[in-house]
Design a protein that fits this description.
single chain; alpha/beta; Rossmann fold; globular; hydrolase; Plant_Biomass_Hydrol_Est; serine-type peptidase activity
Length: about 260
């Protein structure tokens, strides 16, 4: 009698095991295209999604420089952090969001709102960690890093601006960070508002586009304000400080160790 019952039970178990869903491997690391609607207009952006994901993921918002502005939704990944990610895709553990600024614009106003909307959308879709959200940018995007942080100081757990600044370099009138432009000392004003956010600043000592004095003054002001700040100046680098900056292994270990705290002013 027991043998007669055993046969159908074995058949049932085999059938059920055949219906079990197959285990799917994690998708390969790489870039995906997304878009976000702001004020009724769709804005395309890129997201680097790590291959081995343990949610919630750390999230990096990357702001490109002047040369990557446009509407092709590609150029913003071709200089700065994008090439580094392509070379280290299998090991990089974070989600990275790449908005693209239109030609002739800076990272302020509606352009900044689009960048933050892309950050929000990607974080929701891919399981980003709000407490481990970071901001970095190069050149005009380095200026944008300070600008977005000043406007949203409770949003980012740490900053990594590269060859950026706060005031217009000689011969320029389109880079100054508006939030502190009217202050007697824009660097001290910015530092007093950002002293609660850890920062690692990078610049090339030979930079003839944005003088390294921009980053030196900001690092000094942050130190005077009691901030957690690191400053790295590459002796032989001109404006391209982003390649050595993003290739600094200690940067990523330091960055991902930072967490957002409610006490950020």
């Amino acid at each position: 009698m027991h043998r007669l019952l055993l046969v159908p039970l074995l058949l049932l178990a085999a059938a059920l095991s055949g219906c079990a869903p197959a285990v799917r491997p994690e998708p390969a690391a790489g870039f995906v295209t997304r878009s976000v609607e702001v004020d009724g207009v769709d804005h395309a952006y890129q997201v680097f999604v790590p291959g081995q994901r343990r949610e919630p993921l750390p999230v990096v918002l990357f702001l490109h420089g002047s040369g990557e502005r446009g509407d092709d939704n590609r150029a913003q990944t071709e200089a700065g952090l994008g090439p580094y990610l392509r070379a280290h895709a299998d090991a990089f553990p974070a989600l990275v969001v790449f908005p693209q600024s239109p030609r002739g614009r800076s990272w302020d106003g509606d352009v900044a709102r689009v960048a933050l909307a892309a950050l929000d959308a990607a974080s929701r879709e891919f399981g980003g960690d709000a407490a481990r959200t970071y901001l970095t940018g190069m050149s005009r995007g380095g200026y944008g890093t300070w600008a977005l942080a000043l406007d949203h100081p409770q949003r980012f757990a740490a900053l990594a601006p590269v060859c950026g600044g706060l005031t217009n370099p000689p011969g320029r009138d389109d880079l100054a960070v508006e939030a502190v432009a009217g202050a007697p000392d824009p660097f001290a004003a910015a530092a007093s508002r950002l002293r609660g956010i850890p920062s690692w600043i990078f610049h090339g000592a030979q930079d003839d586009v944005v003088p390294p004095a921009q980053s030196r003054r900001m690092a000094d002001a942050l130190r005077a304000a009691g901030a957690d700040v690191r400053y790295t100046e590459f002796p032989d680098a001109n404006h391209n400080a982003w390649d050595p900056a993003y290739a600094t292994p200690e940067l990523w270990a330091w960055l991902f160790a930072q967490r957002l705290h409610a006490s950020v002013p």
